[in-house]
Amino acid sequence: MTQHRSDNFFSKVYALVEQIPRGKVATYGQIAALISTPRAARQVGYAMRTYLPNRPTTPPDHTIPWQRVINAKGRLSIQNPHVTAREQAERLRQEGIALEERDGSYRVDLEKYLHRF
DNA sequence: CTTATGACTTTCA
DNA sequence: CTGAAAGCCATAA
User: Lower CB count within 10 Å: N or C terminus of chain A?
Assistant: First the structure.
């Protein structure tokens, strides 16, 4: 059974994102590494983008805590016309995560909030 | 089949 | 600390 390593890539991403507990975050690179493709951090971002609103086809829509996935610098990388970084920040705050705001961008203290799988 | 496109990361200045 | 540049690689077209 030839399983190319990219088979189910998005599914694997979603499966891991679902595991991030409330009040914690994970990075794109961290997720990528966990599915044996440590250089595919960007593709993890693709998976998050694909699932968002206007994409009824993709899996468990509202069940996926996409807001908990951020970049390696602890910043929010979201770029979606329908969902802004501010909205993501708000969602995270509601989960008890403190965000430091600087010039319209937000930063999370990974030392505190990074989830260890 | 080939190209283009980036919710990224790391390195270096 | 910031930012540019290069590398990465699953999808979309």
Answer: N
